[in-house]
Sequence to fold (304 residues):
Amino acid sequence: MYSKCGKLQDARRLFDRMPEHNTVSLNSMIAGYAQHGIGMESLCLFEHMLQTNVVPTSITFISVLSACAHTGKVEEGRAGKLGEAERLIEAMPFSPGTIGWATLLSACRTHGNIDLAVEAANKFLQLEPTNAVPYVMLSNMYSRAGKWDEVAKMRKLMRDRGVKKKPGLSWIEVNKRVHVFVAEESSHPMIKEIHEYLEEMSRKMKKAGYVPDVRWALVKDDETVEGEKEIMLGHHSEKLAVAFGLISTREGEPILVVKNLRICGDCHNAIKFISAIAGREITVRDAHRFHCFKDGQCSCGDYW
Fold:
């Protein structure tokens, strides 16, 4: 419960006070560290689990795989040993389920391995054929690689199979009220102030070295006019929620934003700059993990 709410230190204190540990408590901490990008702690606890003869479960293996695939400090993740990860999943004594294949698919996205991503997506879809996640992740990988014919095929496949992508939403609680944002939000009562803040922040970010990664706009060049992609990126829901949180809270106060989908690469990079310029700790909990931004760095080490 604590780790899922972003309070990992509280979770660890409770874990350390337990008179003994079992599969449930160890799995919770291993998964918590993996979700927060602290892979070495996940692996240390896994080793402790084996040494104390606590039997691992499928959840244990998935959490360890996630820690290896998404933590820059772990050799298995940084080296991009995705073939070994695939063999690990297939050799598991338990069915990896969609979580296992989604973890491998996510790692393929991190390392740009489209061929293996297709294999992982197909395995995932054998278990959940109407889940939009594999289609969207493959489509995004193709678009970033400029393979627009493949993007069109994925979108047609989704239409033919009746699969619909969830709209991206980001929300933040301020003064006991939850504020929800979508991309290109226009209805929020403070949207003018939010856009003004982001425009000013964008100028400061560019002076500090930020370059918008327009590939994350996920549209073809001939479908937009000059500068439109950058504007689209600036209006992503997570940026809007972060900006609102910063202008609506006290100086120096940490903020927490939650997103129902995975954070986009440009927003991830931009929020690193924002955390340094604003001098704030900004946590974004996306569909996969926690990203704790502070002083221009993210806890995930840019592996997510």
